[in-house]
Structures are given as C-alpha cells and as structure tokens.
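ESCALATION

Customer reports they have been waiting on this structure for their group meeting. Please prioritize. Original submission:
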Amino acid sequence: MELLTVDGPLTATELADRLDETPANCSWHLRKLAEHAFVEEAGGGIGRQRPWQVRHVGLAWDDVDATPGELRAGRALEELLLQRQVTRFRQARTQLLDDGDRDWAEAATSTQHASWLTVEELDALNLEIRGVLERYADRLSDPERRPAGSRLCEFVAWGAPLLLPGVEATPADAQPSADVS
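Update from on-call: job pushed to the front of the queue and completed.
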C-alpha cells in the first residue's frame, strides 16, 4: 500500500520486483486489498500486468461506529506502524551518516517536547501540526510538484497526555500563578 501511495499505480509484477516477492503473491494480496476497498484497478493492462492504485491516501481506524474488534485491530496496526516508522527513522539516519550524506543526515532530526496543555490546546496543536505537514501533501500524488533534489520524507507526530506515575492533571478550577499566554 505504501508503494502504491507514493509511486503508484503499479502492477503486481512491479510490486513483486520491489518487494522481492512473487507476482502471484502480490496479485493475491492486491485482490484481497481490493475486496476490502483499500485499492482498485487503475485501468489498462490485463492479468498481472493490470496497474493498481490506492483508493484513499491515509488510513483511519478510530471510527465511532467501529466494533470493539475493529478498534483492537486498529490499535494493533497503529502499534505495528509506529514501530516500523521508528525503525525506518533509525535506519535512514544510520544510512545517511554511513553514506557521508551530511546535509540530509543533519536535516533528518527528531524533536521531543512536553508541556502542560488543556484538551482544547492539545487538539488545536495537533490540528496545527497536521496542517503544516499537509502543505506538502500534493507532492505525494503529483510528481510535477516535487522540487529538484527532493526526497520522499516521512514525518511522524503525535500529541497525547504524558501519563507519568505521580504526575496528576492540574485541577480544573486551578488558576495560573502568573498571567501566562
């Protein structure tokens, strides 16, 4: 699905070459993904030479109408994806440094920060970060918008309460000791 998202449409044979799999295996998985409306035929070609494309960019699994089983499956997928993204970040940094690509290695950074926020502030900040990242979203689907020298880059961001032992939420009726904005 990632390859179809960033470089599709692709055929089962093209995917097989990139994934070191058999075209038959990729074709079977593409049909299964199509059964569940994740991918669709892009038109043209026959058999394993049919190109496939994603139906929608991005996945969501926290739908309010989801069953408990669907929510559990979504959380398991989310955990798998987060582990994979952290691994890819580490591998990219290592490879860039090993290859002597200092400019890209220095630009590939991580940022951690913690602050005291209300639920409204947390929601607004997450939406603001998403908005910043979405400024470049059109480059994913439109190769003509990609600047010379650009590389496919991945950003992973989350904002959630930091639940540390002994650190409790500020009471709802507490007043800040100083005028802080």
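Sent to customer with the following note: DSSP finds seven helices and three strands in the chain.
Escalation resolved.
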